[in-house]
Amino acid sequence: MHINLIRSDQVYQELLNLPLEKREGCFRARLLAPFAPKYQRQHIPLKAKQAGGFDAMTLLGFMNQMPGNLTEKDRPAVEAISSDRLWQDCQETIQRAIGLFEQAGYNLEVQDYHFTILLGNPESRMLQLNQGYSGDGGIPGYLMLSLLPNDYTLPRMQAALAHECNHNVRFQFIKWNQQTTLADWVVSEGLAESFAAELYGEELIGPWVTSTSPEQLEEIKPIISSQLQLTGMMEMSPYLYGDEIAELQGQLPVGLPYAAGYAYGYHLIQAYLKKTGKSIIEATVTPTEEILEATKDFWK
What we know:
Blueprint: E1 2-5, H1 8-16, H2 20-32, H3 36-41, H4 56-60, H5 75-80, H6 84-103, E2 112-119, H7 125-129, E3 133-136, E4 142-147, H8 157-173, H9 182-200, H10 207-210, H11 214-225, H12 233-241, H13 243-248, H14 260-276, H15 280-284, H16 288-294, H17 296-299
Parallel strand pairs: 1-2, 2-4
Antiparallel strand pairs: 3-4
Helix pairs in contact: 1-2, 6-8, 8-9, 9-14, 9-16, 11-14
Protein name: Zn-dependent protease
Domain DUF2268: 86-293
Organism: Streptococcus panodentis
């Protein structure tokens, strides 16, 4: 396994010393280019053909501080992600999380992993809902964290990274395609957060799970359960992220609170692990249909 740490702290420090007109080019070359294959697989252009068109920078701008908006006020945030120890911890988390599957005898097709940390935009409502941190690990080989570095988010970085590592492994076995269902999605999120909880403790479970009370869970279960065969990213995402984020993304609300699908998935996987006695390692590579079959008491 080879881990390529893209030291964004050094890039942000460079950006702060560049004139505005040179910043985007530097950001694209230093931070975006290593992730080019990820965006290609997601059919997201690195650079829009027309001004104002959707591209990777547009996507990153939903939650992250963009190069043209950086000011001296952001320097403390850059310094907060600049310690060698923090980056070493992230490397060790990736090695530990993915290494557990190798130790269990699973042959992983991906051996090169790219990782970086993006500074979050404090004005982003999506990031605010996530309590200042989020991750992206849906394309095997590529891992990102977005965060507002502070006393709440920094201690949770490794659990969030473990969550994304779990996605990186599962999607090497369970391929994402146009037939991927809402069931696949909530199961994958439940597996990832259960994996993070096992490695780093339930006290570091993300707000995407803890924001849903037991009473809310009982209310959302029949809504999500009735849509598990749904396909299509635009159609599925409101059931995963909830109404407010759906509306922020220009989608119709479906009557669900923030990150309802994450909480649903987490508790479904907890029920699966308890019922079957399987380890989270085994469960991670288990097909969705098998997990649903074993958890009918939960989702029906």
